[in-house]
Amino acid sequence: MNSKAGQRIALISVHGDPAIEIGKEEAGGQNVYVRHVGEALARLGWQVDMYTRRISAAQDAIVQHSPNCRTIRLQAGNLEFVPRDNLFEYLPEFIKNFQLFQKQHNLSYELVHTNYWLSSWVGMRLKELIGCKQVHTYHSIGAVKYNTINDIPPIATKRLEVERQILETAETIVATSPQEKAHMRQLLSTKGNINIIPCGTDIHSFGSIERQAARAELELDAEAKLVLYVGRFDQRKGIETLVRAVRESKFFGNEQLRVIIGGGSVPGQSDGIERDRIEAIVKELGMTDFVKFPGRLSQDILPTYYAASDVCVVPSHYEPFGLVAIEAMASGTPVVASDVGGLQFTVVPEETGLLAPPQNFAAFATAIDRILEDTEWRDKLGKTAKKHVQSNFSWDGVASQLSELYSEILQPALILEEIALLSK
Ligand code: UDP
């Protein structure tokens, strides 16, 4: 049995709205994960309510994605964007409004699946208040992240404490890769349950178009040497490594070389500052003619960009999973990625792409060149990459593993309910 038909569950993602446009400041993998997991769980028969924080009066309070899956936006603080590092103080109001919504709509949840440490705190309080079970996905671990950045925010102490506590108290943690699980054990606690269930991708949409058709659609030369980056503008994403690697590449100076750096930019926010910094480096290195910044790429157009490229580069300093790598591979495009975190789990070196030490632009240049100079090998890597993702990382596969996990956790409660019914 995979689920109790029609059973209601809550996915909680305070700062990662599953119904919002992806690719802008603070909207990335977590939003995609919650949205796709929610929709796929609904297809398996669960009633899925995804809770997030409302950031403007113009946003709908409820977005219905499918008959059994919706996003519910709760007020917590003013209706405005608040960076995640400043959100903690608004969580009690989020919980109050969660309970109010439950009461007004006569809802009850035996299981909540929380996402990121802020939501884990909400889940731990809800466990006390409504007696639900809790599953948690970290998406990012403070103890790992703070090793890779210089500006440690004031909230760090609280985050580190909550991240240890949730591992020890949740019914189970979902780690998205063996590397993430190892980090939890080394850096957080040896206590608590951890199940490994990866992130997924839409294997129907990514992989639906061939390279030359994609190039024609984007008005790119059939013979271009195209290097792609997709993601948020965040220093931790290592876009500088990519830019400097291209400057070192054998193909620098070749008129067919093209670089596309896709991702959103919000004026005045840190996303914009990183974008300005990267654009300044591109200018300084004399690369403005062939490096393009198309801004945020919608999920509808992304399959075309991935398919059109010779290689997709994921140069992150740290990456708990890295959806972009599996999206590119699902599209038949090999990946050159940093040899860190989840990327070590998803990218198979010499088979679906190559790994290079983070921030080592010379190593990235060598890896990019190996793929650009051998189109036959590029195609072979791309083919294997596509199959690898289809067999291991589909959303439906991920959701059915989660569904089984929820059912196991809820089993004792279900049995008790059945006994109570029988004894009536
Ligand atoms: N993304 C997008 N448009 C963009 C940039 C990114 O749709 O312009 C999506 C991308 O396809 C992926 C997600 O944002 O699904 C980024 O997830 P990832 O795990 O790679 O990084 P994160 O943002 O979680 O650090």
How would you sum up this structure in a few lines?
By secondary structure, the protein is an alpha/beta fold.
Explained architecture:
The chain has 2 domains: 8-200 and 394-423, 3-Layer(aba) Sandwich (Rossmann fold); 211-392, 3-Layer(aba) Sandwich (Rossmann fold), CATH 3.40.50. The longest helix is centred in the C-terminal third of the chain and has 28 residues, at 395-422. It is of the alpha/beta class and 424 residues long. The protein has an 8-stranded mixed β-sheet, sandwiched between helices. A 6-stranded parallel β-sheet has the order 11-10-9-12-13-14, sandwiched between helices. Helix 12 links the parallel strand 13 and strand 14. It has 15 helices and 14 strands. The structure holds uridine-5'-diphosphate. The site of uridine-5'-diphosphate has 21 residues, from helix 1 and helix 11.
